Automatic annotation (TrEMBL):
Protein known as: Membrane protein YfhO
Keyword list, A-Z: Membrane, Transmembrane, Transmembrane helix
Short name of any one Pfam family annotated for the protein: YfhO
Species of the source: Kribbella jejuensis
Transmembrane segments: 21-41, 83-106, 113-136, 142-160, 167-187, 207-228, 240-262, 297-317, 329-346, 361-380, 413-431, 820-845
Amino acid sequence: MRADDVSRGVAARLRRQWPPLAAAVAAGLTFVVSGIIRHTYPFGDGPRSTNDLGQQVIPMYAHYRDILTGHGGDLFFNWSSGLGVPFLGDFMAYVGSTLSWITVIFPRDRVDLVLFLVDVLAIALAAGAMTAYLRYLRPGPAWLAVVAGMSYGACGWAIDDAAYMSVWLNGLVAFPVICLLCEWILRRRSTAALMVTPLVVALLWTSHFYTVYMATIGAAIVVVTRLLGYGATVSWRHRLTGAVRCIVAVGLGIALAAPLLLPTFDAVRAARPSPDAVFRPIGSLVFLARLMPGSEGVGTTPGLAVGTVVLLLALSFPFNRQVPARERIAWTATVVLTMLSLQIPITHEIWHGFDTPNGSPYRQAFIVAGMLVIVGWMSAAAGVRTVLTAVAPVGAVLLLYVETWHVRSTTTVSHRAVPVLVVLAVGVWLASRSPSWVRRGAVAVLVVAVFAEVSVSSAAIDARRSKILSAKAPWGDEHTALRSLVESAADWPTYRTAPGAQQTVNDPMLIGGQGPQYYSSTMPDLVSRQLLSLGFGYSSYGRATVDPRNPVVDAVFAVRSRVVVPPSGNARLERSDVPPLVTVRPATAWVSGDPGPFGTQESALGADVYTVPKVRGGRDRAVNVSDRRGTLTVAPAPGAGRPVEARLLASCTPGSEIWFAAPDFVGAVMVAGRGWVTNLPSAVKSPGLYAGAPMLRVGTVGAEGVAAVLIRVSTRTDLPAAPIGCLHPERLDAAVRSLSPADGPAVKVTGHGLTIRLRPSGTANSVVLGMIWIDGWRCSVDGGAGRTPDNRAGLIAIPTPAGASDVSCSYHPPGLGQGLAIGAAAALCLLLLGAVLALGGALLTPSWRGARARRPRPRA
C-alpha cells in the first residue's frame, strides 16, 4: 500500500473520530469549569461531596481501594463495617466496575479527587458515546454533533441528580452505547456485532444495574422507534430479524453479568426495607420547567434540560418536512409518550423495577434527555430549511420561558441564558446562506455560547443544590489524624478498633478499623434488626446505625479500642477489656429473661449483667406516669406548661450504671456530666421509623439505691415498659474474664472467611463469633462437610465435638451459584453462536453473498 493511501486512510479515520473525542473533552471541561466558577474541590475550599457522595460513595471507594491493594476483605465481605457485612451489593450499588479501578492510581488520601475524576470521565464518556451514535445514525454537521453530545453528557439530570451519586452516571453512558450497538446490529447483521455486543452489555450491567436497567429500556424504545420509522423498502421480516438479533445480543450480555447481578438482586431483596412510597406526579408546568437550562430540582423534579440549542432543534423535529413523515410521527410519538411515562404511576413503576424510591422519583429522566438530543440531531442533519421549522420552536421555547419564569426550579441562568442562545441560534440559521467565513464565524460564536451555557448551568445547579443538601469536607488533616489513631490500636482479628462516626456514618470504610457504624441501602435486614434489638440507634429507616457505645455491646463484639472526640475536639482512644472476636462457650446457650435490649445483650454475651427494675413515676402534679398494658405512658397534666419534666424512678444496686432505652422517645434526657441530651429530635420524620435513638448511659445509682431518670416531654409519650436497665460492672468484668482464657483460639481472617485453631477440649462446645448471623456463611469442623452455622442470640455459632481442633468458615453471597451457572451457560451460548455464524459465513457461496448484498438496507 502506498504512503499516500495510508495517509488518506488515517485522515479519514481522524475525521470520523474527532467529533466524539471533541464532545467528550468539551463535556468534561464544562464540569471542570463549573467547579472553578463555584470554587469547589479541587479548585477551592468549597466541599463538593454532597449527601450520598460524601456519606456513602467516597467511603466505599476508599474501602474498594483497600481491597484492590490487599488491605482487608474482598468483594464478597466487608469486615470493617456493621460488625461484618456483605460487600458485593454495595459494590454494585455504589462503586461499579467501569471507572472505579482508577482509585488504585491515586494515594488513599486523594479519594475525593478520584470521585471528581470519575464524574468528569463518565460525563465525557456519555458525551462521546452519544456523539458517536448520532454520527452513525445520520450524517450531519460535525460541529453540531459535538454540541449535541456535549449537551447530553452534561444534561440537567447528569449534573443535578447523578454527579453526587457518581455510579448513576454509568446509566448515562449506557443509553447511547446500547443504542449504538443495536444500530450496528440492525445495519450490519455481522458476526462481529453479535459477538461484541454481549460483552459490552455485560460490562455496562455490572457498572450499575439500576440505571443501566433504565438505559436498556430506553434503548429498546429507541430500537422499536427505528424499526417503525423505516421506509417501505425495508420488509417487516428484515425488521423483525434485526429486532431478534438485538434481543439475543443484549439478553446474552445481561446473562453474562449474572454472577454479579443475581447475588446483588438477592442482597437487595434481603436489605432493610424502607416504607412504601406513593408516587405523586408533579404539575405539568413544573415538569416542563425542567427543560430550561440551569433549572434545579434534585429529588423532586426530572432533570430534562439539554441546553437551549438542542431544545430548539428537538422542537423543530415535528415541523421539519425534510424528515420522512413516517419517522416524524414515530419519533414525535415516542418522545411525547416517554415523557408522559414519567408521570403515569404504572409506567413509573416499570421504570423503577416496581420499587418506587423514597427520593428522586425521576431517576429515568436521562432517557428523555437523550431522546431530545436524538430527535434534535435528526432534524438538524436533515436541514432546518423552512421558516416554519425555524420559527415554531423559537415560539415554543419563548412561551415556555415566559410561563416558567416564576417556577421554583428555574434560576438566574435560566432567565439570562435562554434569550441569548435563542438569538444566537436564529443568527446562525439566518447566516446559513451567507458567505462561508460568516457562517463559520457564527457557528464558532454559537459553539462557545453553548459551552458557556452548559458550564454556568452546571454551576447554578450546584449552587442551588448546595443550599438544600449538606456536603462533607474532603480528606484533610483531621482524617489523617483519625486514621493514624485507629492504626495505632490495630489488633485485628483478635479485637476490633472502632473509629466512630467523626466524619461520616461509614467511617470504618473511610478511616479504617472495624466499627459498628454502617450506612447502605443494601444493609441486610437481619443485621439492622439485630443491632436495633441490641440497643443501637438508627436513621434512614434503619439503613444507618448509631453506636450506643455500650460496654456490653463492646464485649459481645470484641470492640477493644474506640476513637472518642471530647468537647475539647482532640480525638483520643478509649480502651477497655473485652473478650476476643472468637470465644469458646458451653454447647448449650444461656438465654436471658430480661426484656428489651438489656436481655438481648445478656443472651449475646452469655451472662446476667443487668438488673431491669420496675419503673414508677415521681410525685409531680405537672405530669402523670402510668403503666398500661406493657407500655409506660408519660402525659403532661392539663394546664401544665410545655415541656414538662418527668422523673422515672427504679430500685437498683448502688454503684450500678443507669442505662435508658427508649428508641422512639421524642424529647430530652438529663445525663450526668452533660446536662440535657436530646434522645430523638422532634424534626425526625415518623419517629421510630425514619430514625431511632440508641440506648443512653444517664448516670450511676447512688448510695440510696434509687435509679432516677429525668426526661422532658411536650406531649403524651409512650415508653417501653422497662426503659431502665442497671448494669453491674463487676458482673460484666467476671463475664469478660470467663470468655478470655490465656490459651484462647488462634484466628486468621482471609478475604471472605476465617480459620480458627482450637485447643482440644474433652467436652463438646460452641465456637461463637462476634459477628451478626446472616445467610451465606458455611462452616466446617476439622475438615468435615460445610454446614450453615447456628444462630446464637443473633451471633454466628459453630457446634464443636469433644477434641475438635480446627474450624473454618467462609461467606458466599446467596445467588452466586445460580449466577455462575447462568453466566457460564450464556458464555457457552455466545461461543456456539459465534461458531455457527462463522461456519455459516465460510459455507456461504459468492452467489449467496451477492444476494445478501443486494438486500435493501435501512435508511442511514
